[in-house]
Design goal:
The chain is mainly alpha-helical. About 80% of the residues lie in helices and about 0% in strands.
Amino acid sequence: MKLQILPNWCKKLGLTVFIVFSFIAAGDDFVNGFCDGYNSFQPIDEKIANKEHVVSQIEHITTFKDFFGAKTLRYLDALSILGILMYMLSKEKVEDDYINQLRLESYQLTAIVGILISILLYAFSEEIKLTIDYFVTLFMYFYLITFFIKKRIY
């Protein structure tokens, strides 16, 4: 079976869509992580004196959520996943049987590793609360890394 693949120019479009919408969708998390890291390097006496101020300041940084809304951020997150999917399904500059074989091997390895990770997570943590987008995003990242390594090594 031959999978219909998007043209090569879709790689650039997919990567652009992924980067733009990922930064918008995760902007508040980036800012809060940066602030947490910055505040962890303050001297201990200053932390104790400003504890209420620092905690209240970090908890209220929701610039993107206030501007776009929580539901819109979820849609933008889905668009970033579609962008990386577009990147995955785009042709290489030179598309031949060798690239198709590498793509198939990468999908197989990624599926096996993804299933093993899911089983291990379920076996060792009964109270894990992850949504499907974590698994889909991890699957796509791992596929891209595997395909890149296989393409460079062989």
